[in-house]
Amino acid sequence: MEEATLQRFPKNKKDYVDEVMGAGRGDVGSTFNWDAAYDILLCALEAANRDNFYIRRSSGRLAKAQDIAYADDLLSGMTSLHGLQLKADIVSDHITDL
Fold first, then answer.
1. Which residues contact 42 (CB under 8 A, 6 or more apart)?
2. Of 38 and 95, the one with more pLDDT
């Protein structure tokens, strides 16, 4: 093998890092940016009112299950494929708008 094929990273950092937009990981504003982006997404997902998934509360009453987001995970349930596709379309539209 040639030496060039064994080299994992370029010698010059500028050869492989090209930051164009966004907040850096650990940046002071990154948590606020994440909160704002996910808040908009979670509010948009509330608009999907077809085939909702319900849970039983401790009081015994049924309540619409809310979507949950943590770090880079999203938990979003519906009772039909059509409902899931509707939410997937909302997420896709949200991501392309960022």
1. 66, 67, 69
2. 38
Distance CA 81, CA 34 (A): 28
Residue 41 CB neighbours (<10 A): 20
pTM of the model: 0.63
Give the span between the Cα atoms of 37 and 61, in whole angstroms: 32
The residue written with tokens 């039983």 in the block is: 56
Give strand ranges (E) for 1-98. Answer: 54-56, 62-64, 68-70, 73-75
pLDDT band for 63, please (50, 70, 90 cuts): very high
| Domain parsing of the chain, residue ranges | 50-98
Average pLDDT over residues 56-70: 92
What is the CB-side half-sphere exposure of residue 15 using CA atoms within 13 A? 5
pLDDT of residue 11 exceeding 90, the answer is no
